[in-house]
Amino acid sequence: MDSVVHVLRRMGRRATTLLPFSLGIGLAFQDIAAAARPLLWPLAVALLMLALARTDWPRLASLLKRPGLAIVLALLNLIAVPLIVWPIWQALGLWPGLIAALCLSAMAPGIISAATTATFLRLDTSLALLLTLFTNFLVPFTLPPLALWLLDLDLKISAVDLSLRLALIVAVALAGALIIRRFLGPQRLEESGSTLDGISVMVLMVFAIPLMDGVVARAAAEPLKLAGFVAGAFAGMLLCNLVMTFITLPFLDRRTALTAGYCSGGRHNALLMAVLPVTADPDIFLFIAAVQFPIYLIPTLLQPLYRRLLPSSA
């Protein structure tokens, strides 16, 4: 048991090395990627559950005493940003599937790792955590009607069913996190923190494999399209970041506005893959695979910019 815990703790410290490796497994072994696809839903639940279990709930409770700013920013993220970027993508005349995927991505909740990466970017970690949680809890009510209204897109699933699937992931993850916290207790939870981080990395590694399902075949058949989707994924993340930053900068201090922008750029696109039926537009799934590359690279690319814009005391 001690050796298992030791391995998990080492994995937790080497997440940035291991996660791209798991993408490589999915690309190299497409049969495994296809076979692992049914695991997307339970793995999405497990990721959110572990993040909630590791959350500093006393600090979160103190932050929730004045939740107004985070709620407003979360709603701007989920509603205002998609409304702004949608006509931009339409005007560029991109592939219809890429436009739909970019808009759906802008409607998705914040990525779970945003609070972690915000720390070394000198951003407001507490605000990033709140935005991540609020957007994940609110997305069942915002994404389905907004997607149908803006895109008139046949997702092969009704808005009610999509809302229920998203809500079920959040509800089950919250219940699991409460059970974990009650079972371990505050002291054991703190002692087991690095072990839980290692488990999260394991879940993320497995989760990344089915995201690569079908990517090699699409790359062989349409290499330029795949390259365009990867470029679009980078552009989509950066555009959402810029839009949210410039919306909020006149009203908030620089660090808060940059944090809101960063959280808007990083979206939990893989959650869409867990809730959409396999009969949905294949281009949406191609984009979800393509966007994994900027998700892993953009924090590193933006770090020099944030260090220039923010003082070291931030």
CATH hierarchy: architecture: Up-down Bundle
How much is the average pLDDT? 82
What is the helix tally? 17
Assembly state here? single chain
What's the gyration radius in Å?
A: 19 Å
Count the E strands.
0
Task: Please outline what is shown here.
The protein has 314 residues and is mainly α. It has helices spanning 2-13, 15-28, 30-35, 40-54, 57-63, 68-91, 96-107, 114-120, 125-151, 159-191, 193-211, 215-221, 223-248, 254-265, 270-275, 282-290, 292-309. The N and C termini lie far apart (40 Å).
Secondary structure topology:
Elements: H1 2-13, H2 15-28, H3 30-35, H4 40-54, H5 57-63, H6 68-91, H7 96-107, H8 114-120, H9 125-151, H10 159-191, H11 193-211, H12 215-221, H13 223-248, H14 254-265, H15 270-275, H16 282-290, H17 292-309
Helix pairs in contact: 1-11, 2-11, 4-10, 4-11, 6-7, 6-9, 6-13, 7-9, 7-13, 7-16, 8-9, 9-10, 9-14, 12-13, 13-14, 13-17
